[in-house]
């Protein structure tokens, strides 16, 4: 890294993904792995973490021993005094929009925000417009955009390695906006915008405002994509099943990507079955370090955003369609 520019960075929000996820298991991770923004930036050779802010003093007290990192209970005071090059927003969903709006006053070189950017499509369009006008790159942490394993799935679909994709099923919980938006982003990335949207049931979500909804995306001449909402709280469960005419790809409950091929059925002559040929563990701890690598490359003019804010407009347009095209009653 000799001669490379090092940018200063600050984090707003020191909860789970801001700081806490790595607190007890950090020693089990490699130096290039992280589950939080704090560890990603603190271990980075491209950024220097100068400060953190949180209205909750508990996580700040845990960070007390970190030499050289200033702590604030007011993020406005932090960015005004230190003027960091990069600002990461890792606060609760409801706070993203007002913080993003406030940060425009301080003109950071780059902003990295946890999803969602805001709670409504109108607010997201407003934020995207203002950041574009200000010339400030705005990246959104849709984690799977930064995982090589999900890049490989897209490549397999695009190259027809599983034949024609016939159906895709997602299982999720904890809110249409908060959690399903991750997988709606995958759908847009892999297949583009659907022609038709139908929602058929609703269950408990992460809040009363953010319910978990089951729905279908339909494509003319393409796959049928089904989202199944589960009434489960604080369970790390999500599955994806992509079924093609010549193979199958499955993201299973163990955090593995399974690849299947088609072979002859040994019991029933003339029929076929899917056979699993590999199951590789997803390296989730590489996602945030990879995201900050992309952030740095964007800041130095060497790359484009892998999860740009404009994608959030498309996601929320689909969320709006899900609400408008329902066959269930309250």
Please write out the topology.
Elements: E1 7-12, H1 37-42, E2 47-53, H2 57-62, E3 70-72, H3 75-82, E4 86-89, H4 96-103, E5 110-114, H5 121-134, E6 138-141, H6 148-158, E7 165-173, H7 176-191, E8 196-203, E9 212-218, E10 224-230, E11 239-244, E12 247-251, E13 256-264, E14 272-281, H8 287-299, H9 310-324
Parallel strand pairs: 1-2, 1-4, 2-3, 4-5, 5-6, 7-10
Antiparallel strand pairs: 7-11, 8-9, 9-10, 11-12, 12-13, 13-14
Helix pairs in contact: 5-9, 7-9
What do you see in this structure?
The protein has helices spanning 37-42, 57-62, 75-82, 96-103, 121-134, 148-158, 176-191, 287-299, 310-324; strands at 7-12, 47-53, 70-72, 86-89, 110-114, 138-141, 165-173, 196-203, 212-218, 224-230, 239-244, 247-251, 256-264, 272-281. The chain has two domains: 7-143 and 286-308, NAD(P)-binding Rossmann-like Domain (Rossmann fold); 148-282, Dihydrodipicolinate Reductase, domain 2, CATH 3.30.360. The protein has nine helices and 14 strands. It is 29% helix and 27% strand. The mean pLDDT is 94. With 330 residues, it is an alpha/beta fold. Strand 9 and strand 10 form a beta hairpin. Strands 8-9-10-7-11-12-13-14 form an eight-stranded mixed sheet, with helices on one face. A six-stranded parallel sheet has the order 3-2-1-4-5-6, with helices on both faces.
């Amino acid at each position: 890294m000799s001669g490379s520019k090092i940018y200063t960075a600050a984090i707003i929000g020191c909860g789970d993904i801001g700081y806490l996820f790595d607190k007890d298991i950090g020693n089990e991770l490699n130096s290039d792995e992280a589950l939080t923004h704090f560890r990603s930036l603190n271990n980075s050779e491209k950024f220097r973490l100068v400060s953190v802010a949180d209205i909750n003093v508990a996580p700040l007290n845990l960070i007390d021993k970190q030499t050289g990192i200033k702590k604030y209970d007011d993020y406005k005071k932090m960015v005004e005094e230190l003027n960091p090059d990069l600002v990461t927003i890792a606060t609760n969903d409801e706070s993203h929009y007002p913080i993003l709006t406030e940060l425009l006053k301080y003109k950071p070189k780059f902003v990295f925000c946890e999803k969602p950017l805001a709670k409504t499509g109108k607010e997201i369009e407003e934020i995207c417009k203002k950041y574009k006008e200000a010339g400030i790159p705005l990246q959104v942490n849709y984690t799977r955009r930064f995982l090589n394993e999900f890049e490989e799935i897209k490549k397999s679909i695009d190259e027809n390695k599983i034949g024609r994709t016939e159906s895709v099923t997602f299982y999720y919980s904890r809110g249409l906006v908060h959690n399903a938006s991750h997988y709606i982003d995958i759908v847009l990335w892999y297949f583009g915008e659907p022609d038709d949207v139908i929602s058929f049931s609703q269950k408990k979500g992460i809040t009363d405002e953010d319910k978990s909804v089951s729905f279908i995306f339909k494509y003319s001449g393409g796959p049928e994509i089904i989202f199944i909402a589960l009434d489960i709280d604080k369970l790390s469960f999500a599955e994806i099943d992509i079924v093609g005419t010549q193979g199958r790809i499955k993201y299973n409950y163990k955090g593995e990507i399974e690849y299947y091929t088609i072979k002859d059925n040994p019991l029933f002559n003339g029929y076929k079955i899917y056979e699993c040929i590999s199951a590789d563990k997803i390296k989730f701890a590489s996602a945030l370090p990879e995201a900050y690598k992309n952030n740095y490359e964007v800041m130095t003019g060497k790359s484009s955003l892998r999860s740009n804010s404009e994608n959030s407009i498309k996601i929320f347009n689909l969320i709006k369609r899900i609400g408008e095209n329902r066959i269930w009653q309250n």
